[in-house]
Amino acid sequence: AQSVSQHNHHVILSEAASLELGCNYSYGGTVNLFWYVQYPGQHLQLLLKYFSGDPLVKGIKGFEAEFIKSKFSFNLRKPSVQWSDTAEYFCAVNAQTGANNLFFGTGTRLTVIP
Amino acid sequence: KAGVTQTPRYLIKTRGQQVTLSCSPISGHRSVSWYQQTPGQGLQFLFEYFSETQRNKGNFPGRFSGRQFSNSRSEMNVSTLELGDSALYLCASSFLGHAASPSGNTIYFGEGSWLTVV
What we know:
The complex is a heterodimer.
Chain A: E1 3-5, E2 10-14, E3 19-21, E4 24-26, E5 31-38, E6 44-50, E7 56-58, E8 64-68, E9 73-78, E10 87-95, E11 103-104, E12 108-113
Chain B: E1 5-7, E2 10-13, E3 19-24, E4 31-38, E5 42-50, E6 53-57, E7 64-68, E8 74-78, E9 87-94, E10 108-109, E11 113-117
Parallel strand pairs in B: 2-11
Antiparallel strand pairs in B: 1-3, 3-8, 4-5, 4-9, 5-6, 7-8, 9-10, 9-11
């Protein structure tokens, strides 16, 4: 079975700071990778996804993530965060040969200070 | 087009009761999955339905069950509620329900149903 680790539980940044949230997965086969965001009181929204091709994927709101297969990582980045980025961020994975269910990391809470 | 719709949004039940939650997927989506979100356990997969058949099931007791109708709408049921079942229950839908589809298979989530068991 797949598993996902998000090492940062709570990250606090000032506006305009750069962001990088770590995500590592455990699975030997080919995977689909996702980052979801959950703003306070709102539902999970897809930030970006990787299925194949260019390992650097760009998502909404200026976020991007890089898939490094050798490191089993899919870190999320943003060059300059805004107060409105305050939310919880979840990394998720499913196996391309497996069932259509996502395995989620425990999430990283991001607080951006104005 | 409309997103994934879940009802009810909030509900309070008493221990020992049962509850039924409803989910309408995005139009055209045939795969519906259910997840439980709690502060302690995070997001955990419950089960997935595709074309009215349960395809996959997570590691939850038999008190948790679900079904899918011919119009792809889905319901999940929890019987004999326990305090620990208090959670946000999320429904998600996807078009193909096939993780290996060439164009990928994006999973969209609803706003969830907040269940409190007292």
